[in-house]
């Protein structure tokens, strides 16, 4: 096992070693996190709507825990498919205006399980270069050809669609909002291309579900494109503040996945308390529009303040705001300096992002106030000057 020490040393020398930090919640303040002795403004969580500590969600979870069970006891195809699962899936299909829905334990299992169920040897997946790792891993598991197109480059995608036009099945897959850049997929163009070349289209709404659309359905609905997308995927761990994931689409799709998606078939169903929490969160996501409005306002303020200060925030157009630093060590120092100033914003380095684009990834929440954000920007500005990320 000596090789491990050596490899880890190399990672550490390149400022690429990762480590786990313990943190805990501040009761009643989902915008803050405790690390060590310090209470930090949390600008790195995906709790976009601030639902992670919602009293009604926590109450139904507690109730389900006390009246049902701690665990579901088996996979859904065995005896784990409790009634609340069935009801939740009906509500999800209704919310997404699709024929049917299927809940997965988490987004990683949904993406990897669905992609590997839909395609196999002799097929091809066209995948944006910046898609989430769970999509990439699903493609590897599927054993299909992996045709990666340059980020949002539709001409490159077209070239690949032509190159692989004779493959048996074709799947185009994209994040709706890219998790490390906060920019949006070109859904209109992807739909035209999928039609032209006879491909299926799957959209991952992990960072857009709850945020876009009149009832938080996601970016496809916001743009009126929901009926042109074959496979809708989203998570309950971010805007919903709980845990889990869904796939929505046709009845045939869901029937296929129940038979073929291995993470669904061979893994234990989510505990009843989680399913209860998701159901409550789904109702709140649809009802509490003010959370979306507040999130948009907070995101606009934060993005424009960083731009005015002269930072490079890429093409962000969402609550995910990258501050691109470039160098790995500089990103770590930036994050460390922010923590000393009471702001938690983690450095994201390769391989999560391409080489030379290490960054601080800010993600905003409806619970952040203008005052908190303005104070944070003043600190970010000072640190940027001090570390030479900004020129005076
Ligand atoms: N897709 C995207 C775009 C994500 O950002 C994530 C989570 N980081 C996932 C899928 C996986 O979701 P989960 O955390 O529920 O496994």
Automatic annotation (TrEMBL):
Gene3D superfamilies: Aspartate Aminotransferase, domain 1, Type I PLP-dependent aspartate aminotransferase-like (Major domain). Residues 40-380 form the Aminotransferase class I/classII large domain. It catalyses: 6-carboxyhexanoyl-[ACP] + L-alanine + H(+) = (8S)-8-amino-7-oxononanoate + holo-[ACP] + CO2. Its EC number is 2.3.1.47. InterPro entries: Aminotrans_II_pyridoxalP_BS, Aminotransferase_I/II_large, AON_synthase_class-II, AONS_Archaea/Proteobacteria, PyrdxlP-dep_Trfase, PyrdxlP-dep_Trfase_major, PyrdxlP-dep_Trfase_small. This is 8-amino-7-ketopelargonate synthase. It is an enzyme of class 2 (transferase). GO terms for molecular function: 8-amino-7-oxononanoate synthase activity. CDD domains: KBL_like. Pathway: Cofactor biosynthesis; biotin biosynthesis. The keyword Transferase applies. Belongs to the class-II pyridoxal-phosphate-dependent aminotransferase family. BioF subfamily. Keywords: Acyltransferase, Biotin biosynthesis, Pyridoxal phosphate, Transferase. Pfam families: Aminotran_1_2. Catalyzes the decarboxylative condensation of pimeloyl-[acyl-carrier protein] and L-alanine to produce 8-amino-7-oxononanoate (AON), [acyl-carrier protein], and carbon dioxide. Its cofactor is pyridoxal 5'-phosphate. The keyword Ribosomal protein does not apply.
